[in-house]
Amino acid sequence: MLLGLSCDEVESHKAWIKDVEAFTPGAKVMYPVIADPNREIIKELNMVEPEEDASGKQVPSRALHIVGPDKKIKLSFLYPASTGRNMEEVVRVLDSLQRATKHKIATPCNWKPGEPVVISPSVSSKQAKEMFPQGFKTANLPSKSKKDYLHFIHVD
Asked: What structural domains and CATH numbers belong to the chain?
C-alpha cells in the first residue's frame, strides 16, 4: 500500500493532486495523503532538514520508507527538499526486496530486473542445489580462495 504524508493542510493536497494529474496526462493519484500541518509526525520520523524556511519552520525532506509485511522498515530514502525522487530506483529496490524475501537471494550492485541475482551466501552449496534444482552458476574465484559460495541464478 502506498501512503503519502505531507506537512500541508488537506486543501493543499487536493490542489497538489490536481496539479500532478494535469501535468502528467493519464496519471491518477490513487493513494491517501495524510495531513500533518503541525509537523508532529514528520519530526517523529526524522523527516525534516536541519535548516529552516523564512517563517522559521524546519523544511520537510522528501522521505520514502518501504515497510514490509512484518511492519519493519526495509528501506529508507531521504532526499533533500530540493531533490525529487528517482522512481525507477524505488521500483527497482522494491522488486529486489520482494525477490529476496521469496528466494533467499541478494541483488548485486546496479542490478536490474531480468539480470542474474546472487544466492544468499548464508545458503550452502548443498542447500542451493536443493532450493534451485534448475541449476545455477558459481563464480570463478581465484584458486587460492577455495570458496564456492558465490552462486548466480535468474529468478522471477
From this structure: 4-86 (3.40.30.10), 90-153 (3.30.1020.10)
Question: 51, 58 in Cβ contact below 8 A?
Answer: yes
Other C-beta atoms closer than 10 Å to the C-beta of 76 total: 13
pLDDT in tens, 97-110: 999 988 899 999 89
pTM greater than 0.90: no
For 44-71, how does the pLDDT look when each residue is reduced to its tens digit (9 = 90+)?
887 777 676 667 776 777 788 888 888 8
Q: Report the alpha-carbon distance of residue 32 to residue 131 in Å, rounded.
A: 40
Strand, helix or coil for residue 16: helix
From the list 124, 123, 87, 117, the residue with the least C-alpha distance to 99 is 117
